[in-house]
Amino acid sequence: MSDHLAGGYDLVIFDLDGVVLLIDKPIPGAAEAVERLRAGSTPIAYATNNASRRAGEVAELLNGMGVSAEPAEVLTSAGAAAALLAECLPAGAKVLVVGAEALRDEVRDAGLVPVSELADEPVAVVQGYGPEVGWKILAEAALAVRAGATWFATNTDRTLPSPRGPLPGNGSLVAVLRTALDRDPDVVVGKPQPGLFRTAAALSGAQRPLAVGDRLDTDIQGAVTAGVDSLLVLTGVSGPADLLAAPEDRRPTFVTADLSGLFGPADDARVPVSGGEAGGWRVARDGDRAVLSGSGDPVTALRLLCAVTWDGVAPSAITAHSPEAGELLRSWGL
Ligand SMILES: [Mg+2]
């Protein structure tokens, strides 16, 4: 039992977009993966940087797609930001909220007073994504920060996915203030900061959590920072070329095509220490170059190649020595 990947962990923390859902549709196999973990009594959690919905709304959305979720299993960067504000500020402190209604509600429920103007004398500004955020509230926030308010950002994802392609995310709105103020936020709450993962582990009493994500710069870097093992699935934002070029603090423990990899052997999904042979592929290293030959499952080749690029071979220095290898490298844009 425990030689399957998920069997080695006492909590599986899922990112949402690109992992269990794509915008408004479940990713095929996600509902089954969640059920299978529940059947095996592995606790699960959902950790999302999106601050525009509350935990209960996220759970409702997931259940509506057939992916089972309890509100208590959901951690949002809005909830985490409010909890952090409540830790740092006295009860009843005024916080200027730039973001969605969900963020205002979280701030209020944390015992603080959400306000919208400098005239209310806020001691902190919290900024999260909201589709109605406009110049007026950004201007109030800029004035408040300049007057000494502490600036919290729920997350700094530059984009957020949509059916029409990537749209400006909270990171883009944070960049507006960053430009106006010529400084960075004092505190960033969501991934790649480790807070969401640490809170998820603490809430379920987990000693050995696994983080599952689709983005190297948020999910995987957050897991590395939190000291948590991670699984990258290739159903979302980060692709093979990103993975091969990943800096040390953005390298996952495991890579699989999708969530079904949770139930395969852990050793098959692990990025090996060096190249070599696996599943019909062969990666031969020659100094600062590497040659891929053979054929088989693309993700198997990807893991073998990560072993050499993470050890100093530039992705552009990989060459193909079989038609299938050539086709694969081309499909990854290499
Ligand atoms: Mg994601």
From TrEMBL:
Domain GCN5-related N-acetyltransferase-like residues, every copy? 279-334
Superkingdom of this entry's organism? Bacteria
Database matches in InterPro entries: GNAT-like, HAD-like_sf, HAD-SF_hydro_IIA, HAD_sf
Q: What is this protein called?
A: HAD family hydrolase
Keywords carried by this UniProt record: Hydrolase
Name one cellular component (GO) term.
cytoplasm
UniProt GO molecular function = phosphatase activity
Pfam families assigned: GNAT_like, Hydrolase_6, Hydrolase_like
